[in-house]
Write a structure and sequence with these properties.
mainly alpha; two-stranded antiparallel ribbon; rod-shaped
Length: 223
Amino acid sequence: MDKAREDQLVMCGQVVDFVTENKEDLEASEVAAEQADEVAEHYAQVDGARAGTAKRTKNLTGDAKTAKKMLLELLPALLGPLSRIATRLQDNDLLASVTLSSKQLRKLRPLAFAAVVESVLTSAARPEVVPELAKQGLTAKALQPLRDALATFKTAQPATRKTINERVVAGAALEELVDALMDEVRQLDADMKAFKLLDRELYKGYTQARKLVTTGGKGSGVV
């Protein structure tokens, strides 16, 4: 959601707080009280939709980070032995593919990182390499945690990207919701004008809550 609408949503929260705190006084105008309820309900829906989207993305990103951390911790336990095996077998291609530092691995982007780990595990499964690894206790069973961590990472990582894409789409939907919410607030503006006669102090309080406060700190206004 863009910055302008984020600021509008903050302002709407101020308005909802105000009308909630002054609910009894608002009942002097049945129309204004009903419209205030509409605004509060609509605001709760928009705020909930935004929070839910952020939470889903955060959870999936956390899964990917946890899996990558495990891979970074476990992979050196395989790279070291593979490097020595490559030297014994005089396999320069294998040696080149397993001579990777932790720093190099950490710098890789997600897809490249997954591809590198998968390549290393594929090398570890080569017929001439398997018995050599077994001599060091690195059997297929011992390497399973690495394979499991890779599977988790590959599952979580695309899911994270998909959710971010969905979040962009949801962002457009949220913008539409905020626009609709602002229409409701503008209707409340019209209804609240009656309080210039009914309760001038309440009206002043409403206009204060209705001010748009921007995080840029360059002033405020009513929109």
